[in-house]
Amino acid sequence: MQNRTAIALAFRLVSAFTLSIMLVLVKLCGHRGVNLPELMFWRQLIPGLVLFIWLLRRGEIGRLKTARPWVHARRAATGTLNLFLMMWAVQLLPLAESTVLTFTMPVFAVLLATVFLDERATAWHWGAVCLGVLGVALIASPTGGHLPLVGVCVGLGAAFGGAIVSIQLRDLGRTEEPVRVVFYFSLLGCLLLAPWLFRGAGGHDAVTWALIIGVGLSGLLAQLFMTSALRYGGVASVIVMDYSQLIWSTCGGWVVFSQLPPGSTWVGAPLIIAAGLLIAWNERLFSAFRAGLGNLGSRTSSDR
């Protein structure tokens, strides 16, 4: 069990790093005039082609067979919308701020579980929600004036979508291997984005195409490691590694774009991170408590 948790944490850490690389490349593509729907299309097509060719060369196309096509379709629709919001937020906001806003995902997960899954939120959960809201309010404070309201809303929308996607990935991970999950997301995402490809898509120079290919390849790696992490561990267990993305994004924003977060971000970010950690800690305690009750019940039955 400990080995599975360690593997899940390692996969999630690598996923956070490769996702940060992808977001830097997305922002660079935006600076070079690449249309967002077009960039999303190539972001989906490249991983799908790489996986298909890899499986074909190994004679393992059968690994793509699935008994849950509609679940994959639902995940693709949600994931494509979430990808759009995430990439748009990166183009609207500095890297560090857009990354911090995605850390509100656990807060949205609590709200979703309470409303749609009839799960009872504890006082710890609601305390974490309040911390997260306060952190966002500080980062988006009108007195700071450095963040556009549209960008903040898009970033929060991406976090909300990320919470839904994490639940879907956890569900798919029970029966589907990561390669299959990523392939169908890429394939169905391409079909959804194809009508938009010819609206505003233009010619690009070699450097821009290299950046676009980099977006696709880094996105593929991020997806594979993220899906693998959720296959080996629960969302509450692995989410702590997501916060390392703030380090990579801050470094990327500083080195590539000469952007450093203002003081309000450094005050608000720890509150949002604390909210996520509090939720993860509470979930792990609750899981351990349930496991303890289960073991106690088993021992009681055996004593009888």
Beta fraction of the residues?
under 5%
Structural category is mainly alpha
N- to C-terminal separation?
29 Å
Helix content: over 70%
**What order do the helices and strands follow?**
HHHHHHHHHHHH
User: Which term fits the overall shape?
Assistant: globular
Number of helices: 12
Low-confidence stretches: 288-302
* Biggest β-sheet strands, sense, barrel: none
Question: Overall mean pLDDT score?
Answer: 80
Task: Give the C-alpha Rg.
Answer: 20 Å
**What is the number of strand segments?**
0
Explain how this protein is built.
The C terminus is likely disordered. The radius of gyration is 20 Å and the shape is globular. The chain has 304 residues and is an all-alpha fold. Helices cover 80% and strands 0% of the residues. It has twelve helices and no strands.
Give a nutshell description of this structure.
This protein has about 300 residues and is an all-alpha fold. It has 12 helices and no strands.
Features:
disordered C terminus; mainly alpha; 304 residues
Topology:
Elements lengths: L1 H30 L4 H23 L10 H24 L2 H8 L2 H12 L6 H17 L9 H24 L5 H20 L8 H27 L2 H4 L6 H13 L5 H41 L1
